Amino acid sequence: MPSDILEQTCKRVGIAALVFAAIWAWVLVMTNLAWRLFGTAPVKVEQWSGHVNPIAIIGLVISLGMVFVAGRLHHEPEKLLDVGLGFEVVTAALIGALNWWIAVPHGWGVSWICVVIIFYPAIVPAGIRKVLLASLVAASMDPLWFWIGTLRGVEYGLSGYELLWSFVPNYVCAFLAVVPAKVIRGLGRRVSRARELGAYRVGELLGQGGMGDVYRADHRLLARPAAIKLIRPEVLGDTASLRSVVVERFRREAHAAANLRSPHTIELYDFGVSDDGNLYYVMELLEGLNLQELVDRFGPVPPARVVHLLKQACLSLGEAHDRGLVHRDIKPSNLVACRMGLAVDFVKVLDFGLVKMASEDGVEQANLTSPNVTTGTPAFMPPEIALGNRPIDGRADLYALGCVAYWLLTGQTPFEAPTAVAMLMQHVKDDARPPSEASELGIPVELDRLVLDCLAKDPDDRPADAGVLYRRLAECPLPDPWDRDRAVEWWALHLTELGLDGSLDESRASVAGIGATMLYVEERTKP
Q1: What's the number of CA atoms in the CB half-sphere (13 Å) around residue 32?
Q2: What is the DSSP letter of 34?
Q3: What CATH number is associated with residue 201?
Q4: Cα-based angle 455, 457, 458 (whole degrees, multiple of 5)
Q5: DSSP of 458-469, one letter per residue?
Q6: H or E element: which one contains 347?
């Protein structure tokens, strides 16, 4: 089965063990309290409790132990599923002992072993043969304990016909247990086949966005990991003609984005259409966190680090704008601070899926775009996109980048509104208050002014291009610069918290190596 489905299946091993633990606790309550209060037991209370209590306590302890084992073996799913089948057999053995250790009236009832045989494989589907074998062994626990009781001299007083009705349902359930296991395993294989897109096999879900879901992916021939984004069907439109237009638009724009060479632009490996007509992008897999998460988890960012991050975003956008591409959806979640080799706090600009191509005179090439659609995120949308009243150029991305700067410095968006429409109207009509008034951090006057310049309503009042913005950021006086030593120290401190493998050597040699790498990148890509 696919890894994420297998992982969910393994989680249910612990859930099943908790359910069985609750049942054994219920047996103890019924044996020692309920029957004493509300009625008589099938045999003498003392004899019954002396028989049931040890078995129920053993069952409770084993079930709780299985919860612990499930937590320890979650990274070895196949082994955990095998241990879980052994747990099913042990549970059936305890129920068999409960049924046959002493002579109790059995009547025409069905053994509780049937519940175990049907219930467990239905929520924890293992391999078909293993499920059948475990179910047959579990079904044999009633005959086994009956035989042991007979050897001990227990007189059950049951005819052969009554024994037949006591044992046969167990084996019927054993064969029926194969059905849900087979169905679920089959569905897992179908999902696995459906997740093979081009040369890539789709793995666990990494995140969800407005346009689609992002999964981990692995090339079937190469060892290189990747991230694959499946575009939501509703983005493509609800008619065949509209879908064909949108598919062609994405194909053209993916080709343009794939030609971007800035190291701060996420690398696009592949693009295609699945068998069911859905679009997908294959991109490089990043280690880090986006700027939305950075602020959500660690609070507003020091101004020096904000400048460091924004300068790198300018390098990506500057190349895209020079090639006539406008991103149109710059926001904190589309900017990732990551670890790239020895470099840390290395920014990557993501999701050029809304990228718009512009002609040399600044007029959009709209012949292949969807009609009457406004794209972007309201909290970071420039007024000209919200109104749709003028051609869009790279200065729209600079407005959005100003909103990102505001978010990093203050932990707030420039405008707050209860609805998307109200938010857009504020972008169109209202002036944002300076970041220094919304933050407890000491923000330099020059940086404060630069952010407000990016948020100007008229594109002509903003920095002329990404290169100009980069130079103005570089000229901002910073009393406490964000140097490479501080970056390495921060990442070394939070490496485990971010869920990244490996470690950062905080020695001076490592810092020097990282510094040399980042300096080389900055000098080669500086506008």
Answers
A1: 13
A2: I
A3: 3.30.200.20
A4: 115
A5: SGGGS-SSHHHH
A6: strand 343-349
The single-letter code of the amino acid at 237 is G
339 plus 451 within the same structural domain: yes
Number of residues that this document lists for the chain: 527
Domain check: are 440 and 487 in the same one?
Answer: yes
Domain count, the chain: 3
Shared domain check, 264 and 153: no
In this structure, what token pair is assigned to residue 13?
Answer: 């091993």
- The answer on 347 and 452 residing in a single domain is yes
User: In the sheet where 288-290 sits, what is the strand order?
Assistant: 288-290, 335-340, 343-349
Q: What is the 3-state secondary structure (H, E, C) of 237-248?
A: CCCHHHHHHHHH
Q: Which of 76, 59, 62, 66 is nearest to 3 (CA)?
A: 76
N- to C-terminal Cα separation, the chain: 49
Closest to 71 measured CA to CA, from 8, 5, 4, 14: 14
Question: Annotated active-site positions, please?
Answer: 329
Which of 299, 302, 319, 309 has its CA nearest to residue 344?
A: 309
Distance CA 342, CA 352 (A): 26
- Residues 476 and 499 reside in one and the same domain: yes
Residue-wise pLDDT tens digits, 3-19: 555 666 677 788 888 98
Residue 268 shares a structural domain with residue 355:
no
Q: Residue 43 has which token pair?
A: 């045999």
* Residue in this structure with the two tokens 């293993």, named with its chain if needed: 130
**Residues forming beta bridges with residue 336, ordered by sequence position:** 290, 348
**Using one digit for the tens of pLDDT, what is the confidence trace for 407-459?**
999 999 999 988 989 999 999 999 999 999 998 888 999 999 999 999 999 99
241 and 345 part of one domain: no
Can you tell me the distance from the alpha carbon of 291 to that of 404, in angstroms, rounded to the nearest whole number? 8
pTM of the model: 0.59
Indicate if 56 and 130 belong to the same structural domain: yes
Q: How far apart are CA 139 and CA 117, in angstroms?
A: 8
Q: In which domain, by residue range, is 210 found?
A: 195-285
